[in-house]
Design a protein that fits this description.
The complex is a heterodimer. Chain A is α/β, with parallel strands linked by helices. Chain A has helices at 20-31, 45-55, 69-82, 101-106, 119-129, and strands at residues 7-11, 35-38, 59-64, 89-94, 111-113. Chain B is globular. Classes of the chains: A alpha/beta, B alpha/beta.
């Protein structure tokens, strides 16, 4: 493949320490040929956007299991737009009730992956939607 | 246990039998080429005395309540008293959680287990910037003694034991509990319960750390020392494999890493000048009950035997209570599916049964809807009833260690023990648990297992009903529990009111003294106790300690 590798930032906003999913997905994306940077725990939206700029990524994957997604996902998209890099694909995952998904999508989160999703589905989604 | 000549004879007969079976397998193969446990221990077609060989009953099993405690820590186990049924609960405000506690006690629950929200677990008040959106979400928000008074209002702390899932700021919450009890007229020596207080597994798997390892270990040994003199019936730590397992570890890794952490705590306390038999009887453990039924039972039994050996042989403990591995169990949250959530009731029941057959001292059963949200009251009730069915209806509690002596269970217990020792030795060679964690060794091992499991699920090799087999179209359940978004505002206002009404010069004085003490090697518990009694907040106390101790920076392992 002569194409440039897709660069992804896997980020953990908020205070929860459940990073099994984030790490499994980071590894799966890497095995699928992407370049993956994992932020570690307890990142603020500001820190995530800064890392996305520094690492020059095309995709941000947000993972949260504490229930604070409505507070922490939308500001990431807002900050990206402010920086003029609103074309970065932002996806999210974790324990997220179905009822919240329309709100998150309206805020600019392209897709939300809930428990039981296969890593292949996420890989396929990124490949099809990365800009 | 078996005589040599008989075993020889058996071996020959088994050979004949095996050949017969292998011939018939040519025509009708078994379901899989190889059968194995979650820890990749090969499972044979059949277990006989041959697999156990020279099995020395007294050395391997002993009697219940006696070394090496394989069969249980009490002589009569559940014939005497059932395990403590202890459902983990906590959400929103102290007011709401107090109601849930009272509901559970009224339903026949026998102990409390308190979940704190993430700001509390990380030592922030509800009004600090990083707390935004997290207040009251995964547990109850506690900022000051005021909240703790509300949380335990009307609950007699000399009658109910309370387990608190709190780690980095454990000393502060314990101090608040002691202070609330005093207000109820209950002296610290009458208190029973547990603080999790296990920072090492926070670095490895759970993530709610604050301070660096050395300072954290100091706080922990301060608690050991203080409680041995003042709160003698308190379990000063719950050394936890639960979260290590949830992060993806195998059964063997769960036990190996937990017991290695245990060794590190004992080492730290000895180094701080404590006498092993003064604190070791109050060490307790917390394990996961996962899906592979027999491996889990064997795991619990192996863990008791290994810990008894460690305490006796490595640390020279003399008090039998120092040798006993007492543990709480929770069923495996990560095995719950968002798909067909009612099926989770069955998963939980089998997992809970494995914990009982493994001799647990207390048990939390998960609710069916936990892959979707916090559990509703109705779901929690089914989970509690599941324990009650096991305890009161099905007869598994009528004899001690009913599976002891099963060829399979004993062979599996031996296999797990051997593999756990391999890991413990490896970690010893790396310089102990703290060093292994700083090197990212445990984290990497767990990550590998987690990824391996995920691939096995996606390939269908590991069946998860409703996820990769027997799926069906379904509507997602409605009526999920949701934390009221007003909680944060309510909580912030309450804490600000506390800050206005308290004696602020007194708070300042306490915090200054705490800071000075933190710079020496004196025991910090009395200082923390004074501060919380003056209504200094959790965030203020932890803030002072953050200034002196600094904060832990995680190692990158991926």
């Amino acid at each position: 493949m002569s194409e440039k590798k897709i660069r992804v930032l896997v980020a953990k906003p908020g205070l929860d320490g459940h990073d099994r999913g984030a790490k499994v997905i980071a590894q799966a994306l890497r095995d699928a040929g992407m370049e993956v940077i994992y932020t570690g725990l307890r990142q603020t939206p500001e820190q995530i956007v800064e890392a996305a700029i520094q690492e020059d990524v095309q995709v941000i994957g947000l993972s949260i299991l504490s229930g604070a997604h409505l507070h922490l996902f939308p500001p990431v998209v807002e900050l990206l737009k402010k920086q003029g890099i609103g074309d970065i694909l932002v996806i999210g995952g974790g324990i997220i009730p179905d009822d919240d998904i329309p709100t998150l999508k309206a805020a600019g989160i392209s897709e939300v992956f809930t428990p039981g999703t296969s890593t292949q589905d996420i890989i396929d989604y990124i490949k099809a939607n990365v800009k | 246990m078996f005589n040599d000549a008989k075993i020889k004879e058996l071996k020959t007969k088994k050979q004949v039998w095996t050949e017969k079976v292998e011939a018939s397998i040519q025509k009708r193969p078994e379901r899989k080429k190889e059968f194995s446990t979650d820890s990749e221990i090969t499972i044979n077609r059949l277990y006989t005395p041959e697999e156990l060989g020279e099995f020395d009953y007294e050395e391997k099993l002993g009697f219940p309540g006696e070394y090496p405690y394989t069969r249980g820590v009490q002589p009569t186990m559940y014939r005497g008293r059932l395990w403590t049924m202890r459902q983990y609960a906590g959400f929103g405000t102290a007011e709401e959680t107090n109601e849930r506690f009272k509901y559970l006690l009224n339903q026949g629950q026998t102990g409390l287990s308190c979940a704190f929200d993430l700001p509390t677990q990380i030592g922030y008040d509800s009004d600090q910037p990083l707390s935004r959106g997290e207040v009251g979400k995964v547990g109850v928000a506690i900022d000051s003694l005021k909240d703790m008074e509300i949380l335990f209002d009307g609950i007699p702390l000399d009658k109910v034991s309370t387990s608190m899932t709190i780690n980095a700021p454990a000393a502060v919450l314990l101090a608040m509990y002691i202070a609330v009890a005093e207000k109820q007229g209950v002296t610290p020596d009458k208190l029973s319960g547990t603080i999790q207080n296990d920072i090492l597994k926070e670095y490895v798997a759970r993530g709610t750390y604050i301070f660096p390892p050395a300072e954290s270990m100091r706080l922990i040994t301060n608690i050991f020392d203080y409680c041995s003199k003042n709160v003698p019936n308190w379990n000063t730590i719950s050394i936890s494999g639960y979260h290590i397992r949830e992060a993806g570890a195998t059964a063997v890794q769960e036990i190996a890493f937990t017991l290695s952490d245990g060794i590190a705590y004992v080492d730290a306390a000895l180094k701080a000048g404590l006498n092993v038999d003064d604190f070791a009887p109050r060490l307790s453990f917390f394990f996961n009950a996962h899906v592979n039924f027999f491996e889990e039972i064997a795991k619990f039994r192996a863990a008791r035997r290994i810990w008894a050996k460690i305490m006796k042989e490595r640390f020279g403990a003399k008090n039998p209570k120092s040798l006993m591995l007492r543990f709480h169990t929770q069923t495996a949250g990560s095995t719950l599916t968002a798909q067909q959530p009612d099926v989770n009731i069955m998963r939980v029941a089998f997992q809970a049964l494995s914990a009982v057959l493994g001799g647990t001292q207390s048990l939390h059963t998960n609710s069916r809807d936990e892959a979707l949200a916090l559990p509703t009251e109705e779901s929690v009730l089914i989970a509690l009833r599941t324990q009650q069915v096991i305890g009161y209806e099905i007869g598994v509690t009528d004899t001690v260690d009913p599976l002891g002596g099963s060829y399979f269970i004993e062979a599996l217990t031996n296999d797990i023990e051997a593999k756990v020792w391999d890991y413990i030795n490896k970690i010893d060679n790396l310089g102990g648990a703290v060093k292994a964690i700083e090197l990212g060794y445990m984290q990497k091992e767990i990550q590998e297992s987690a990824y391996h499991y995920q691939k096995a699920v996606e390939s269908g090799e590991q069946v998860v009903i409703g996820v990769n087999k027997f799926q069906m179209k379904e509507e997602k359940p409605k009526d999920l529990m949701r934390v009221d978004p007003e909680v944060e505002k309510f909580q912030v206002e309450k804490t600000q009111k506390v800050k206005e009404e308290r004696n602020n010069p007194q708070v300042e004085k306490c915090l200054t003294e705490l800071k000075a003490a933190a710079r020496t090697d004196t025991n910090l518990m009395p200082y923390i106790l004074d501060a919380v009694k003056a209504y200094a907040t959790l965030g203020e106390v932890c803030g002072v300690l953050r200034e002196v101790f600094g904060e832990y920076q995680a190692v990158a392992t991926i």
